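User: tokens in, sequence out, please.
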């Protein structure tokens, strides 16, 4: 009789044990999936945590030296002054008949002894000009001491007054004088001076 009771009890409890076992198995599988989902959410940046996104380091960008912006100014405004260099292509200027600078700053005196260019070893003539005392643009012409020998056109007509081009101060060393070159091209072999070139060529040499 007791054996029958144990058998009946076991038979009644068997479904319960099976169901409990299945429930535990399903619960463990669900727990694993839940933990996996939680890890994915954390890696994705949920729950207020930053996302894990590792990027390879990029090399720092390097920039070359920037060229200074042009600072175009009138040569007459430079404290250090400037240098005028003249190439006498006709070869008419001599030691006894040098080139003079007649300008709006010296009353247009064609034979001003303080505005005489000196000869150089390269057969050019030059004059070092300090900063003008007159605060005005410089207009000028070249002569050989008087207006009869002033530069003219091939037709011996008067030319327009010369003027100085602006210079780029950013390319000048501190205190360096800009050198402005003027060409007096070939012209008549006698009589008045040959015709000038109106375009002035700025060089970056300093003195």
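Assistant: Sequence out:
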């Amino acid at each position: 009789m007791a054996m029958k009771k144990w058998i009946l009890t076991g038979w009644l409890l068997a479904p319960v044990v099976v169901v409990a076992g299945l429930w535990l198995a399903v619960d463990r599988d669900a727990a694993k999936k839940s933990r996996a989902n939680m890890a994915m959410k954390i890696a994705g940046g949920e729950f207020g945590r930053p996302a894990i996104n590792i990027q390879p380091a990029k090399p720092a960008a390097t920039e070359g030296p920037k060229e200074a912006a042009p600072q175009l100014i009138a040569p007459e405004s430079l404290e250090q002054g400037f240098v005028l260099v003249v190439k006498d292509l006709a070869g008419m200027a001599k030691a006894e008949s040098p080139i003079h600078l007649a300008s709006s700053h010296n009353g247009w005196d064609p034979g001003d002894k303080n505005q005489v260019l000196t000869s150089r070893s390269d057969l050019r003539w030059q004059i070092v000009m300090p900063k003008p005392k007159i605060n005005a643009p410089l207009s000028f012409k070249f002569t050989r001491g008087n207006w009869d020998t002033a530069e003219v056109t091939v037709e011996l007509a008067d030319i327009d007054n010369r003027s100085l081009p602006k210079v780029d101060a950013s390319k000048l060393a501190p205190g360096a004088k800009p050198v402005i070159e003027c060409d007096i091209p070939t012209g008549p072999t006698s009589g008045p001076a040959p015709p000038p070139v109106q375009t002035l060529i700025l060089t970056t040499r300093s003195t």
